[in-house]
Specification:
about 210 residues; mainly alpha; two-stranded antiparallel sheet; two-stranded antiparallel ribbon; globular
Length: about 210
């Protein structure tokens, strides 16, 4: 009988609202009194470098959208570029429920520790429990993105500019990642920059 709206506005449940969201959406189930993800989404380990179809250079993990890092835009803190994109998509679609859930994620106990600096990205990479916690958050963010109803063509036109905004904020607030970003861009060839949407966005931010 619990509605999505009542969960979002119940501050006592704020830290676990993303879990309730998962239950309501059906990708999270309770089996033998344990929460189990029934979710056909493979989350790539953000700490394993990969090459895309164009790049001869490996995209640094720290530049990927799902990499855990803290940055602020218009007074709002985000924990990854993907988090910002999901939040922004919900705002554009005027989906207030999704906007609320995107923000309530910051109140989840694990993310509170991350935002306070008690947990850092390297901890997530080396601690299995933290890594699993992070993956669960990522699944929620990805679900929010997929669940928001927005015209595909409109999002296709809007997303690159939003990604530039997020990437710039990420670099401004994380000087260590900015060093890695500059090194990556400086070694890219003309072909790599113009043959990859990701690289083109990075280059536009670099300029």
């Amino acid at each position: 009988d619990m509605s999505f709206e009542s969960v979002v506005h119940d501050q006592k449940r704020c830290g676990h609202a993303f879990v309730i969201y998962g239950l309501l959406k059906g990708y999270l189930k309770i089996i033998n009194d344990e929460l189990v993800y029934d979710f056909d989404l493979k989350i790539t380990n953000p700490y394993i470098s990969e090459k895309d179809n164009i790049n001869k250079s490996v995209i640094p993990n720290q530049l990927k959208n799902l990499y855990p890092c803290i940055f602020e835009i218009s007074g709002v803190k985000f924990i990854s570029v993907e988090h910002f994109l999901s939040y922004s998509k919900a705002k554009i679609a005027n989906d207030l429920n999704a906007v609320n859930i995107a923000m309530i994620i910051n109140e989840e106990p694990f993310i509170r520790k991350f935002l306070s600096g008690e947990i850092i990205p390297n901890d997530i990479a080396t601690n299995k429990e933290y890594y699993n916690e992070w993956n669960n958050i990522v699944k929620t963010i990805k679900c929010l993105n997929d669940d928001v109803k927005l015209d595909k063509e409109e999002w296709k036109k809007t997303a690159p500019n939003l990604m530039k905004i997020a990437l710039k904020a990420k670099l401004d607030d994380n000087p260590d990642i900015k060093v890695i970003f500059d090194e990556y861009i400086n070694k890219l060839s003309y072909e790599e920059i113009n043959g990859s949407k990701f690289n083109k966005i990075c280059y536009d931010v670099f300029k």
